[in-house]
Each structure stands twice: as structure tokens, then as C-alpha cells.
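new request in #modeling-help
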Amino acid sequence: MYLWKCWRDTRWFFVVFLAIAALPMPMAAFASHFGTVIRDAGPMAFQNTFMMVVTAVAYALATICAIQEFTDKTAHFLFTKPRSRGYFVWTSWIVGFTELLIVAAVNLFVGWRVLAHYGVSAFSDGGPQSWNLVSPQSFIEAAIYACFAYALTFALAAILRSGLKGLGASLGLLAGMVGASVALQMRWKIHLPVPPQQIGHLPLALSECAWVMLALLFVLAAQLVVERAET
Amino acid sequence: MLFHVNPSSGVPIYLQIEAQIKNAIAAGALKREQALPSVRKLAGDLRINPNTVARAYQNLEREGVISTVPGEGTFVAGGRPRLLKSERVRRLQPYARQIAVEGTQLGLTEAEILNLVQEELSKLEVYR
Amino acid sequence: MTRLAISTERLTKAYGHINAVQQLNLHVPRGAIYGFLGRNGAGKTTTIKMLLGLVRPTSGSARVLGMDTSTDRIAIFQRTAFVSEKKTLYPLLTPKELVHFSRGFYPTWDDAAVEKYSQLLEIPMTQRFDKLSNGNQTKVFLLLALAQGADLLILDEPTTALDPLTADEFLRVLADSAIERGCTVFFSSHQIEEVERIAEFVCVMDRGRLLLESRLDDIKGEFRLIIAVGNSLPRQTSSQVLSVVADGDCCRYFVTQDAEGFAAELAREGATVTQVASLGLREIFLHLVRKEPPCISGNAGATLVGSSSSF
């Protein structure tokens, strides 16, 4: 029942996000139909749009999924239902995360098919002016970052009891991390990894796993805060 | 339909119900062996707690005023009240005292007071 | 199986220096309709929230349906229906959808009850919750509570937003379903007349403390207002005489037990007792909470609990 409600709250947003995921590449292809642009810039455009779409949708979903449950106005109703508060936290998180995965998958699929239509390989820019800026790794890193952003924003929204506050805090935290990382690098030559960068000398795969673990820890923290909350 | 209670009065509701049932029997509105409404029905009609009605019915049954037949309902008792004569007299005494005091305060003679009581008795079904 | 649906032991909640609830000992018997009275800010809602785990007690404990509120919350929720003071629900859902939402949580859900009560209470089932009037919003809450098939209903000011007719209907439904299913009803209210109608047990709370907890019939049977005129009338209060208001040679005594005995004693000392009046619940409540200085805790009705009513 709660699953149904989470879906119901997000379904129209989900439709919009699907549209946002599915439209850019076909539109870009159509706009450059008679040029060679698609061959050179196609993969780059694809990668960039993927990163933007998946990141934006991650932040948006986290804001939406958390906002309606944990405002105090309905907590008295929800938290007296015979389910643990952890159940509510994780269920709404999973619904949003699933929608995020679907949006990402749609975006990847559409981009891949559009580029394949022009005989261009989607995940690498192996053309004459190859800069090797596009690679499967970039897509994975973008996905990991989106996952991280989603979990962090969701957790902060639950802790601060407001979707928008969570969003603001999350973006602020990210900006802070980036700023601190740059400062540390410049001043003391210490490298502070920002997701989804590699952590120290860990292999990249492990680093990404570590970021995902950290993301899940945020949600766990949110669960603990919500369990102890007084309404 | 016969009964009406005032929950805000200082008199507990169950006592009001008991008094009204007794009054109704004495005035002939409720005949011997006549069925009384069920606890739930009466409570629903009066918008009160069914346990209050149940308590009144239990007390009246103990006094022999009404009786319950399992599976059939509650009825006005056919036989004589179960209380001892001395107890019944004792219960009436405060009312008698009240009549005596009031009558004296109002300046009525003993004969006038007794006449009044006689009139009321003759109005009751039981004594006609 | 405990005889009490709700019991608290020295339940306390302090917010900094403010004692919202102090050393509260409640006893709500199973199957009873129990009215919880108190002024605004007396601590009623805080107490209810502690029973439901929405607020953590500072000290003391509470048991609901025999289970500890700090460890067995989920099991308690399975069998308890709650209507909060704040009648807010998901704004975009209709009552029909809210029923659909709630149904899945409770195996004891009664669809027939939904049908019956939604018609009886005249609830527009397909209108968005935020578009409903205050009264209708409250009715939706009541509907969800009644259909749940709970063993215990905890209602915080259930009829505040209802018009008198609907409140009347609701009380009848409540009393009827209570006796039909044997469930316990614990409700707080400002409508003293309603409490007087259907509550079997009553509790009065003031400034975080319990002033009185007893059977309503016993309170009405014992509490009296005695008015006496005389030269040297006693002026002390005690557990028997809760308040004394003096005006010249006339005194009004608010007596909680053995009023006849007290009146006789006054008469013996040469005073003239002009009235021994019984009191409605409203007057009793006002006497209890208006008293200066405030009633000290220790259950003004403690002796009543022992005599004829045993929980």
C-alpha cells in the first residue's frame, strides 16, 4: 500500500523525466540530420546529456520522494501504522531509485539506438579527432555520482524534514566538498576525492563501490534519525 | 421512546433510567410482562454508553422490578418485587420527609398534604 | 491477559524546564469508554503521543494492550486505531484512496463498515482531501479508525470540528461498535457533555498532573456542593473537601466523599446547611481546574477508586 502511494506521488514527474531522458538525442540527431556533426560530436553530446539528465533527475527524485512523507503534517498518521519507520524510509527510497534507474536506462537505450542509426558507436569517440573523452567509464562514473547525489539528497531531506531543504543542503555540501578538495589540493597538495573520483590508490572499481556504500550509509543514517524523531 | 435522560444532571445516568422505568411501571405506561428495549437499542436511542443501560437493568433485575429471559429479552416483572417490606418502606422515607418539609414550608395543613398524596395515588394505574 | 487496555506508571515528559506531563498513572480498563478531560496545554496530547511512540517519555513507562510502548510499537499499532488532534492527511488523495491505502495495513479491516459509516457520516468519498471541509476531514479520520477493526481506539478531540448532529451520530456509532466488538475507547475531548453521555470512566488532567480518575457514576454519586451558613465555619481543605469559598458567614464546600457525613458534622457544630447539591461533570471539572492554588497531584479521587469501582 505504501509502495502504491509512493508511485502515485511520483508518477507524473516520472513521465516528465522519461520524456527528458528520451528526447534530447533524437532531437539533436534531427537537428543535425544533414551534417557530419553527429559523427564527430554525437558520442560527446550523448555522454553530456546522459550526465546532465541522470544528475538532474537524481536530485529531483530525491527531493520529491522525501518531501511528502516526512513533513510533520502526516507523520502522526503514517508512523502509527503497523510498519517500522525504516520500512517507510527504504520503500520510498527504492521507489525513487528504481525510477532513476529506468530513466537512466531509457536515456542510454535511446542514445545508443539513435547513434547506431548513423553507424556511430555510442560509448567511445574513436573518430578522426578522437580525444578519448568519451568512454564507458565516464558513463559509469556519471551513474555512480547520480546514485550518490540521490541518496545524499534523500537522506538530508528526511533528516531536515523538507525536500527543498534537503536539496539545498545536498548541493551546498557538494559545493563545499569540491571547494575543500580544490583548496586542499592547492595549499597542501592533499587530494580529497570527490565522488565519483578514485579514492587514494584503491582500484577504480573498489572506489566506486565505496561511494555506493557511503551513499547507502546516508540512507541508513536517515532511517536512524527518522526512527528517533518525535512528532 | 419512553425514556429521556439528562447526562449533564448531577444524577448518574443509570439512576435516571432506573427511576424512569419505575415511574413508567407505576404510571401504567409499562405493563406487567411487557418487553423493554434491548440494552443496545436503548443506549443507541439515548446516545449513551450501553454499559450504563446494562447497569440500570442489572440493578432493576436485582430488585425484582424487571427480569431477563436469556435469548428472549428483558421484561417487566410479573410477580411481586423481591425486596423486603421493611427495605421498601425505608426507601420511600426520604421522599415522605421531603413532602412533609415542603408542605409545612408552604403553609399547608396536614389534611391538605395527605389529600394531595391521595390524589396522586389515585391517578396511578396500579391503584385504579 | 491484562485487565487494562492502557496503563502508565509515573509517565513523565519534560521539555527543558517545562513539565508537560508529570508522574502520570493512568488505568484504562479493557472494553471501557474512557474520557480524558483537561484544559488546553494540560498535557493530554503529549500523553497520547507517548502512548503511541510519537514522543519519547523522559521517564516512566506505559503499556498499551499489555505491551510495552517503547519496544512493541508495531504490535500495538496492529490493534490500535488513532485519530490525531491534527486532522491532516495526504492532501491529494481522496477518501476512497485513503481507504485503499489504509486497508493494506490491517488484516482486520472491515469493508462493510466503510460502506456503512461513509454513508451514515455523509462523507464525499471522491473529493480530494485538501478540498474537504474541516468537518469532512475529521469524518474521514473517524471512518478509517472505525473500519480498522481495532481493539483499542485512541481519539484526540474527535468531535471538535463536527456539527452537533454529526457528532451525535458519531457518538452513537462509537458506543454501538464498542459494545459490539468489545473494543476499548480512549478519547480526549473538550465537549464535556459528550464525555458525560458515553464515558464510563473519566480522567481529569491539569498542568501535566492527574487530578482525578474514576468511574463517572461514582463521581456523580459522591461529589457534592455543600452550602452552609454559620458563624465559625471550617475553612480548611483536605482530601475530602477540595475547595472552600467563603463569603461573610456563608461557605461553599466542594466535597468529594461522604457529603452527608460532612453536612451532618456542620449541622452539629451549629451551622445551617442550606444545600447539598449534586453536580454535573462540567461543574466538577471547573471546580477541579479552577481551584486556587492548583490541586496537588495524588489523584483527588483516589479514595473513590478504592470503594465501589475496582479496575
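bot summary: The longest helix of chain B spans residues 85-105.
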